[in-house]
Amino acid sequence: MEKTTIALQLKEKIKNHTAIVAVVGLGYVGLPFAVEKAKVGFRVLGIEQNPVRAEQINNGENYISDVKDEDLNEVVNNGKFQAVTNFERVSEADVIVICVPTPLTKNLTPNLSYIESVTAEIANHLRPGQLVTLESTTYPGTTDEVMLPILEQVSGLEEGKDFFLAYSPERVDPGNKRYTTRNTNKVVGASHPVSLEVATLFYRQTILHVVPVSSAKAAELVKVFENTFRAVNIALVNELTILCDCMNLNVWEVLDAANTKPFGIMPFYPGPGVGGHCIPLDPHYLEWKAKEFNFNTHFIALAGEVNRKMPQFVREKTWRVLNQKGIAPSRANILVMGVAYKKDLGDWRESPSVEVIELLLKDGVEVIYHDPYVTNLSVGGFDLASVELTDRTIESADLVLISTDHTEIDYVNLIDKAQIILDTRGVTRHLDCNQAKVVLL
């Protein structure tokens, strides 16, 4: 079959939404993506190797806050969305979208084991006329240098002629009510022009604005740059926070005043560190790749170093506040407010709040926590459960540490009942309350 005919047939299926879409990995990226595709009529096959999650999907049970319960139930009940735990049905799909984790090793080098294993599984079932796209954040070159050889060598097929390959980085911002999968601009890159054409058409079916770029490598760099930009700027304000602490200045006052300038500045704020699946990890992918070219990314390395030190800074400031009250940290009782990496979410991956708790536990501090979104937590060999936030709980703590600024917390009452508060998020700074009780980071 001519390559133009294969591409035309796939494009026609995509345009009339008769294409079957397989989504590998039904987490924070994959599940919202799968539901969006099923909502417009595509038949979606979710490949989720966690059997508990797969069963939840097939029962219409939602576990991702960015997905509406009614949307998931609708596409499951009408037969448009089904989850399986293996790759045996991959050959049924016309489009295969990979949304698997890309963690780092202990040495801060890329761990592509999930991408590699999934690609090998797909290659075993690859047939002519399929589009494969990768959405996982990774270093520039992964799609062409890691995935493409596996797909071609195992399947015996040729990319751009028999099948199509592209990279389109996820831009999920968990908890963001304004920008969702549908209305967040989507970058797509492929190193073969026909692959780019097919992939761009596919993403345009459910995303309002698609931005094609010249290659998969360019699209991969777009993603890591976006998160590196944030990491560097957060590191800047975190370092400013430590300097202001040395100079006995209020960093929040400085930042609030600086951000009144109507041009030439962008608001970034300090905190106990950085967390989640992007900012603590992704810049190191670019840092690692740069060494292949004998190039040292000094800004990226320094930003990571500064951000990783913030939990230790919070621990040291906690000690100082306790010592000023005449309480030895090893005999202190601390209530930590929030363990999620971001407000109004239940995700505590790479959360700096968890690292702060672990440091305090090692000091012998008695730590309890309250988080309306995270009911249980394992940290430093301890199993903790979120406590009920009663007046008695607040009053009995020697110090309340605000580590995650969930919006549903009554911070005025918290300040009223607490003995003293260390606020690492600046959430209390504009409240009409007894500010003498509050120590800002």
Automatic annotation (TrEMBL):
InterPro entries reported for this sequence? 6-PGluconate_DH-like_C_sf (IPR008927), NAD(P)-bd_dom_sf (IPR036291), UDP-Glc/GDP-Man (IPR017476), UDP-Glc/GDP-Man_DH_C (IPR014027), UDP-Glc/GDP-Man_DH_C_sf (IPR036220), UDP-Glc/GDP-Man_DH_dimer (IPR014026), UDP-Glc/GDP-Man_DH_N (IPR001732), UDP_ManNAc/GlcNAc_DH (IPR028359)
Fetch the Gene3D superfamilies from UniProt: NAD(P)-binding Rossmann-like Domain (3.40.50.720)
Q: Name one GO biological process term.
A: polysaccharide biosynthetic process
**Signal sequence interval, chain numbering:** none
Question: Is Oxidoreductase given among the entry's keywords?
Answer: yes
Q: Name one Pfam family in it.
A: UDPG_MGDP_dh_N
The family note in this entry says: Belongs to the UDP-glucose/GDP-mannose dehydrogenase family.
NCBIfam families assigned:
NDP-sugDHase
User: What's the protein called, per UniProt?
Assistant: UDP-N-acetyl-D-glucosamine 6-dehydrogenase
* Native organism: Planktothrix serta PCC 8927
What taxonomic classification does the UniProt entry list for its organism? Bacteria, Bacillati, Cyanobacteriota, Cyanophyceae, Oscillatoriophycideae
Its gene is wbpA
